[in-house]
Amino acid sequence: MLTLAVTTASTTFDRMQEPLADRDITVEHLQATQRTVDLTQSPTTEYDVGFVYPGRMMEGGVVSARHNIPWVNNRDAVLTSRNKAGVLAMLERAEIPVPETRVISNPVDRDAIVAAVDTLSFPVVIKPNSATRGIGVTKVNELDSLLGVIDYLDLVHDYQATGDKSYLIQEFLPNARDYRVMVVDETVVGGVERRISRSQSESESESVGLSPNTDHGQWKHNVHRGATAHGVQLPDQYQELAVKTAAALDINYLGVDILVTDQRAVVSETNARPTIDDTEKYDADFWDQLAALIRQTARK
């Protein structure tokens, strides 16, 4: 029986234990953060394979040095997916459709910002290049608001300890349907549509004095922001788009975010550390596919 080290103690860990145990894989928690470690003492627990490389790179380096194990999604995979601008550049080169996007690397003066967005139509979306869960993502409706938000970003980036001093300015796709497609070893194993309830949007609109009939209510589809994920049968073209994305990035376990409007479908982001949702939202062979990938990785 294989022993799988899982570096998160969240929902994914709880959902993995029983189905993987049924497939002769023991799931154990390998804590990477919020702990103290005596680096002069060898670890007392051994693992065969890890899932997935810790999100915090410094702690991940310690874990990886102490436990010489292969990872389902290693450090390179996590870093590749986390760099939103890098992902979009790689996908564009692979002729995979992405939103029209500008990456800004501070310090940049205002004239350069104005020139960069000259061919974009407002509203636009500003997002950090390496944050998750929709943190810091903002929609602005005109140039003055954009420059105001950028003033705050300049203050943050002026702090010497800030590691990532880049951000994206991206076209906003109104009324787009938001899909998260799960790909395991170049196979789509399920997907969800992330939706915002009308009552939720109305509540947020009223809290800031806006009419719920405008588009100024909640627009982020992140589950961590209150959206709900509904299992869906994805059309073949979206599945193909997700598989091509995983292949272009060379990542075996990947959540691919696709935005769909009446005119087109684009890959907006990827996640190499995606949360595993309820089993009924995935294909019947999801756990078999994941177990096979874990075993394949352990043999490396």
Characterize this entry briefly:
The chain contains nine helices and 13 strands. By secondary structure, it is an alpha+beta fold.
Briefly note the CATH topology name of the largest domain.
D-amino Acid Aminotransferase, Chain A, domain 1
Strand content: 15-25%
Kindly provide the name of the CATH class of the largest domain. Alpha Beta
Q: Calculate the terminal CA-CA distance, rounded to whole Å.
A: 17 Å
Low-confidence stretches: 200-216
Could you please describe the fold and organization of this structure?
Keywords: ATP-binding, Nucleotide-binding, Transferase. Residues 195-219 are annotated as: Disordered. One of its GO terms (molecular function) is transferase activity. This is Glutathione synthase/ribosomal protein S6 modification enzyme (Glutaminyl transferase). By secondary structure, this protein is an alpha+beta fold. The chain has three domains: 1-73 and 282-300, Rossmann fold, CATH 3.40.50; 100-171, Dna Ligase, domain 1 (2-Layer Sandwich), CATH 3.30.1490; 174-272, ATP-grasp fold, B domain (D-amino Acid Aminotransferase, Chain A, domain 1). It contains nine helices and 13 strands. The strands form three sheets. The protein has a five-stranded antiparallel β-sheet with strand order 11-10-9-12-13. Strands 2-1-3-4 form a four-stranded parallel β-sheet. Strand 12 and strand 13 form a beta hairpin. The protein is globular. The two termini are 17 Å apart.
